[in-house]
Design goal:
- The relative contact order is 0.13.
- The protein is of the alpha/beta class.
- It folds into 2 domains: about 5-220, 3-Layer(aba) Sandwich (Rossmann fold); about 225-305, Alpha-Beta Plaits, CATH 3.30.70.100.
- It has 11 helices and 14 strands.
- Helix 3 (about 95-105) packs parallel to helix 5 (about 140-150) and helix 4 packs antiparallel against helix 5 (about 140-150).
- The mean pLDDT is about 90.
Length: about 300
Amino acid sequence: MGRVIETENLTKRFGDFTAVDAVTFHVEEGEVVGYLGPNGSGKTTTIRMLLGLLLPSEGRAAVLGYDIGREQEAIRREVGYMSQKFALYDELTIVENLGFYAGVYGVPNGERRQRMAEVLDLVGLTGLERSEVRSLSTGWRQRLALGTAIVHRPRLLFLDEPTSGVDPTARRAFWDLIYDLAGRGVTVFVTTHYMDEAEYCGRVGIMRGGRLLAMDAPSVLKRERLPGSSWRMLADDPLLPALEALEDLPGVIRAGLMSDHLSVIVAPGTTPEELRERMRRRGIAVQFEAMQPTLEDVFLTLAEST
């Protein structure tokens, strides 16, 4: 096992705008690493630098031991890349798209048919080989885009917002494919803005405004990056007035509306009994239940502290 990605103070500026700001992290062989953040936080720019498509303004990085500034072609031969917009040819069939990318990636002619059959089976497109891409649903196009990124058996796979615009069932199925690939020894680096999706990753980096705020296992981030405990608050009264009252109470770090309840992060030493009594004094009857914090809690806490 070794490091397949290593960055140090990786920075990219476009004029006066800093898209990626002194980012340092590493990815070990065999990991599934998520890069979590809202649109515009620097996720795609980071990937484009790691692929050698953009040169950094400052800092350094190596991918599979190759320098991103000097050995771009070597990197591209050994990695797969699935972009946000699914770079497929609508007028071609599934098998024609796979054949095209097999050629682009230099898969030898004698191996292409077998390799394409393996990929079709892996991504669940066997039997649809002659279907034109324009006729495919978003979920099927997503599977084909993944297939074109792995047709050359890359050691490292970059997935940039691969499930954006895909329904929850297709998202879950796609993550099953990701872990199938990881089980075959492929290292996966995936960007996402879905907080729940990042829970599937072994480690998660949290990006905001071009800066990497934290990177660790989801369980570690929730345990070590939250300043207090997490509670679910149920109220007999309308939730919005209860939320306004709760936010004014000492000991409440953050509160938010979550469908039929309020999610509350409270400071260490503050008990739900204290909060319930304070709410009672304001004429609002509430109950508290312990709940597991989420990566959204971590993200909001880190964002508010920067």
